[in-house]
Amino acid sequence: MLELTMAAVTAADAGATAGMQMADAPSEPGAVLRVGRDKSVCRLSTPDDWLFVSRIHLEFRCGPDGTWQLTWLRGSQPDPSSEVRLTVGGHAWPLAYGGTVPLPRGGSGEIVVQDRAEPRSVNVGFYHE
């Protein structure tokens, strides 16, 4: 099972949890959870005017062995207008545009999509059983 919680945070409401969204999916091969602006395909969606987030920005996909991986999907622009950081066990590192990383089984962490132009972010917490 992969459990996700997402909060869209602006400088005005930093620390607030209003509008938090949650999604989960069983750890079955081929299961997918997406984060982005396109509500028709993303289980966790951001405000439509947050253009630093692609229509489909992050994809969590379960592999054949039940392990989840995170991919920052490339958008329509050659350079992203955001940065993505992954934090696990107190260690943080940037995720490359178009890059994929495995999520630790039995672990938790946070993915932060930070707007490069304004003080706002999308914070996605995860727990992978």
Molecular structure report:
It is a single chain. With 129 residues, the protein is an all-beta fold. The protein has no helices and eleven strands. The protein has strands spanning 2-10, 21-25, 32-36, 44-45, 58-62, 68-72, 82-88, 91-95, 100-102, 107-115, 120-128. The strands form two sheets. The chain has a six-stranded antiparallel beta sheet with strand order 2-1-11-10-7-8, with no helix packed on it. A hairpin with a 5-residue loop joins strand 5 and strand 6. The chain is globular, with a radius of gyration of 14 Å. The protein starts with a strand and ends with a strand. 28% of the residues are buried. The model has no long low-confidence stretch (mean pLDDT 92).
Name some characteristics of this structure.
globular, 129 residues, mainly beta, 11 strands, six-stranded antiparallel β-sheet, 50% strand
